[in-house]
Recover the amino acids of this structure.
């Protein structure tokens, strides 16, 4: 039996921090995660430094900021030459396995894992048929994962169209459970389970849609409706308008049903996690396994009239972070919440420290269970006209859009839903100036052109004009025979 702890790191895609029963959400059903939170620490101020899939995963696996790993756009390029989380565990004698979405290029780069069972959401344009696609073929459903007709980047919904055991959430769970059972019992293990959902397409199992339909019959709390800030109007800044435009025209009913389908995907994941906990328990591993649950970023889900990610409002950037230690580990403890300011760069040093492994010098993050605490966190996504930047000091958040040189300031203690922009209030000018100076100090590369004489000048204002969406936001088709590599 290994004398060092096992590590199970679980990531989802698009899950906002607010969507937990433990966080007080009025509708979401997450009994497993709520129990896990009571068994450890729930961090309430965890953020995605770059709230989009590929850069976030580079941060997770290198313990570095977007500046450190070189991507704030979501570029399809190889991982930087930095020690990865998996590599560091493996070099310390751990067996390392991953199941699900890695989002690296080339797709079969194992980035330090001994093996990877891959689900890349059908990205066949890179010349790879992933393991989930192969599984569907083995089950007699070759190339049929997108025959439901829903897009990976839109918010239409319908039930999953194939048998329950073929759903990607269920597939990933079972593959990781079997991987745990097939472990080398003489060595500790680092397991990474990366679910593709609740990222669209919104295709949960019918039984979870039925569950929420029953809930809706008994309660429709006003607190679960999308909220709108007083700063949203027809003249919203370019970056906001481009995120609103794709899903404009959704009726109140469509919004409600899309959010319900999203919740159903979350609850399906929550229930599947029970199988992993049960597997660890039955294998005699649960008491000596550290569990961490998180997400690469959140989803606006119609709040402020916006959907998806790439923004620094709470729904898109504030992420769940639940850490449960080994049995009787007072270093982590139980029944705790912690409001320290953390990012995805902090996961690598935290897990390595808890395992007693030296943290590589290249890591920029800090342990989430140590004494050190950061005073502020910088976030960045996009470049030029698509850029958005953030400074967060634990209470106040400054969001900056260079197009139109627009700043927004929110007091998250008094206004957690960011309904009131305080940037124009005389009472908050000292806070605005302080955070602006911090923000400017983080600029590099092309961002430095937004400064003149030490002051923000940004980029010329623009009016966003929505273009056509003939490809339905990247709609996928029939994947048998596999699409040609020219498919983008």
């Amino acid at each position: 039996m290994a004398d060092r702890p096992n590590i199970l790191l679980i990531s989802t895609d698009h899950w906002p921090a607010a969507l937990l029963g433990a966080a007080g959400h009025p509708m979401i059903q997450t009994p497993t995660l709520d129990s896990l939170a009571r068994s450890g620490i729930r961090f309430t101020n965890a953020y995605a430094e770059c709230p989009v899939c590929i850069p976030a995963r580079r941060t997770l696996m290198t313990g570095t900021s977007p500046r450190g790993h070189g991507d704030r756009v979501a570029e399809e390029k190889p991982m930087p030459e930095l020690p990865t989380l998996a590599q560091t565990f493996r070099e310390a004698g751990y067996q390392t396995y991953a199941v699900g979405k890695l989002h690296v290029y080339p797709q079969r780069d194992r980035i330090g894992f001994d093996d990877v069972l891959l689900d890349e959401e059908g990205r066949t344009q890179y010349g790879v048929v992933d393991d989930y696609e192969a599984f569907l073929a083995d089950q007699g459903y070759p190339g049929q994962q997108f025959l439901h007709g829903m897009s990976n980047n839109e918010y239409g919904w319908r039930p999953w169209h194939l048998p329950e055991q073929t759903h990607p959430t269920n597939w990933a769970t079972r593959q990781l459970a079997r991987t745990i059972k097939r472990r080398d019992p003489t060595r500790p293990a680092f397991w990474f389970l990366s679910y593709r959902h609740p990222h669209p397409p919104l295709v949960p199992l019918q039984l979870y849609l039925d569950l929420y339909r029953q809930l809706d019959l008994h309660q429709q709390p006003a607190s679960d409706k999308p909220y709108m800030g007083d700063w949203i109007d027809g003249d919203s800044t370019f970056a906001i308008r481009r995120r609103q435009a794709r899903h404009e025209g959704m009726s109140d009913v469509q919004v409600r049903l899309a959010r319900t389908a999203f919740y159903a995907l979350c609850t399906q994941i929550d229930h599947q996690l029970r199988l992993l906990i049960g597997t660890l328990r039955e294998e005699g591993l649960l008491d000596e396994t550290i569990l961490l649950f998180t997400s690469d970023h959140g989803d606006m889900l119609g709040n402020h009239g916006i959907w998806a990610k790439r923004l620094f409002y709470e729904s898109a950037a504030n992420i769940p972070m639940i850490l449960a230690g080994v049995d009787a580990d007072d270093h982590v403890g139980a029944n705790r919440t912690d409001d320290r300011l953390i990012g995805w760069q902090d996961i690598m040093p935290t897990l390595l420290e808890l395992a007693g492994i030296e943290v590589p010098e290249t890591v920029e993050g800090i342990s989430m269970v140590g004494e050190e605490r950061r005073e502020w966190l910088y976030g960045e996504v996009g470049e030029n006209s698509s850029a958005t930047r953030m400074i967060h000091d634990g209470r106040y958040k400054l969001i900056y859009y260079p197009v139109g040189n627009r700043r927004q300031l929110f007091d998250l203690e008094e206004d957690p839903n960011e309904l009131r922009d305080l940037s124009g209030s005389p009472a908050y000018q000292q806070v605005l100036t302080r955070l602006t100076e911090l923000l400017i100090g983080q600029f590099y590369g092309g961002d430095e052109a937004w400064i003149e004489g030490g002051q923000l000048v940004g980029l010329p204002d623009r009016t966003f004009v929505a273009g056509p969406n003939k490809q339905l936001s990247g709609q996928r088709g029939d994947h048998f025979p596999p699409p040609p590599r020219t498919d983008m």
Observations:
- The mean pLDDT is 93.
- The chain is about 25% helix and 15% strand.
- The first helix runs from residue 31 to 38.
- The CA atoms of residues 377 and 436 lie 13 Å apart.
